[in-house]
Amino acid sequence: MNINDLIAAFGVIINGIPQALLALTYGFAAFPTALGFFMGAIACAILGSGIPISMQAETIALAGTMGRNIQERLSMVFYAGVIMTILGFTGVLSNIVDLAGERIINGMMAGVGIMLTKIAVSGMGAHPGITSISILTALFTYFLSGKNLVYTICTSVVIATIYANITKKEIGGLIQEEQRKLKIQKPILNLNIVRGSLALACLTIGANIAFGNITAGLGEGMTVNVDHLTIYSGLADSVSSLFGGAPVESIISATGAAPNPVTSGIIMMVGMGIILLLGLLPKIGKYVPGESIYGFLFVLGAIVTVPANAGAAFTGATGSEPIIAGVAMAVTAATDPFFGLFAGILLKLFI
After folding, report:
1. Using an 8 Å Cβ cutoff, are 18 and 157 in contact?
2. Residues in contact with 109: Cβ distance below 8 Å, sequence separation at least 6, in sequence order
3. E strands in 43-124
4. Fewer CB within 10 A of the terminal residue: the chain, N end or C end?
């Protein structure tokens, strides 16, 4: 371990805090989420994996908007985690990916980018000032910094937070102080939860493939075992949500570029877990508005996810491939990732 490992871990922690605040605004609890981080750290240490897990804006936003209340959101995350764990252990994930193909997977992820953009723009209704400043700052920082997402999220959150505090906007109204103890939140089941769980599972399939390979590509000679990643991210989701915590998923992590990516990733997850255990996040949330992350969501959706995945889905596509990828993207954007993936596969088999 050296200083660069620590710097990379610290940068990813800073990147994760605004996304963790977004989770709090949807009712997820910070304290039990630490269990997910510690489980990820243990798994990466045992497996020697340099692909860490953390707060992921896409999953948080999808669960937060599809679940009508916190009980439904927790249940969706729990069942999705169980599904992904089973897929990872059995190796069925590889079969699903092979059946769908890269065109459909990328089309689905492009649709997720459109969903994120819609969520970001929706903030204009309730808090137009904070949301617009966050989006404008994020766009300006992203292009000025040479498309650095860490700088983008940090700068947009800081500027939007300063504006909200100077103008005395109401901040943290949806964030509750937590009792630092564990209590099982019994999962429930209904049709909306089934749909949400399948949607989260489909999103996770795409994210594990995309984010896992991007993080692995940051380091020299590092590879990603998608089945291993799926297993420990699924277990982390299930354990965290069972006690009221947020999803903890695969991310694009700067620790992949550290001299010792496994060590750096473990340090990041342990550090984030400690912050959550100490109860610092709800206190931070009283000063940092949840809407401050909408700029990052807009850039992540409209500028990063949609162009990259749509390009991969349509570039060089022949025959019916553009139609299939387009259907997967459009249906995902209009409904959710499960229906997008299902529609793409169904059309592919029909043609």
Report:
1. yes
2. 206, 207, 210, 305, 309
3. 53-54
4. C
